[in-house]
């Protein structure tokens, strides 16, 4: 079951168009409401029961997904604007969620080890971003012989701005309304309403928020016609999603 929230659901029963590629074993769940997905190529090296969901009015250009495994899920939220996206999934039961209204200039998202990359609504990625749930090679404790660099989920909360060439490592959790400066490497827990920069990323400022608009104040931004159109679009989507839900 996929909840009907802005984070994780984008389709309603009456709007769903379902198709299955028998050759690759991928099930596609499309919104009938103007999802633009011609720019996405999907390559299944092997595996079954893999699912891809496309939300209403999402746009995906010049992108690809490479999947090797079973029971993996990719969800593209409504009103996403995604380009040059490289999705790599290896193993079973991995999940990648890109929330509503998120934009990506270019990024590589890598999910391995049955883990998830959860990008909440309203995030903004610049270019050259890497998000990864794994180190891809093993480090062992010599006393126990056990692996110590375990794969881990990645989560970005609502309205995170990721700058150019940022790397987000396994286990990272980024708080809402935070800005990650270009070239930073993120690991661990990152506070909300903050600016982080560096290798590893360190907190430079707190008590901030940000906007896609170049307004000189929050008041100017909130009173702008552009913000009014944005708020109306978000309100319409929330109202639309409240009508029903899908269980597939």
UniProtKB/TrEMBL annotation:
Pfam families in the cross-refs: Hexapep
Keywords of this entry: Acyltransferase, Transferase
Keyword Glycoprotein: no
Highest taxon, organism lineage: Bacteria
EC nos: 2.3.1.-
GO MF terms, alphabetically ordered: acyltransferase activity
Protein name: Acyltransferase
Species this chain originates from: Pseudoalteromonas distincta
């Amino acid at each position: 079951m996929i909840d009907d929230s802005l984070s994780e659901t984008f389709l309603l029963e009456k709007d769903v168009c379902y198709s299955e590629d028998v050759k690759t074993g991928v099930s596609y769940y499309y919104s009938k409401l103007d999802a633009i997905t011609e720019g996405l190529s999907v390559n299944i090296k092997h595996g079954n029961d893999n699912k891809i969901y496309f939300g209403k009015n999402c746009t995906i250009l010049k992108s690809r997904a490479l999947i090797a495994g079973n029971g993996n899920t990719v969800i593209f939220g409504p009103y996403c604007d995604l380009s040059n996206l490289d999705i790599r999934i290896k193993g079973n039961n991995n999940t990648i969620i890109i929330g509503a209204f998120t934009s990506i200039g270019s990024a590589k998202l890598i999910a391995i080890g049955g883990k998830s990359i959860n990008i909440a609504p309203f995030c903004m990625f610049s270019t050259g971003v890497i998000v990864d749930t794994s180190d891809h090679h093993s480090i062992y404790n010599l006393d126990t012989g056990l692996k110590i660099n375990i794969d881990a989920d990645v989560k970005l909360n609502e309205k995170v701005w990721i700058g150019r060439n940022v790397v987000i490592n396994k286990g990272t959790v980024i708080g809402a309304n935070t800005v990650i400066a270009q070239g930073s490497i993120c690991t661990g827990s990152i506070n909300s309403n903050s600016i982080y920069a560096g290798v590893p990323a360190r907190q430079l400022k707190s008590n901030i928020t940000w906007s896609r608009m170049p307004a000189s104040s929050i008041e100017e931004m909130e009173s702008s016609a552009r913000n009014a159109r944005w708020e109306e679009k978000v309100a319409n989507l929330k109202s639309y999603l409240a009508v029903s839900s899908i269980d597939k």
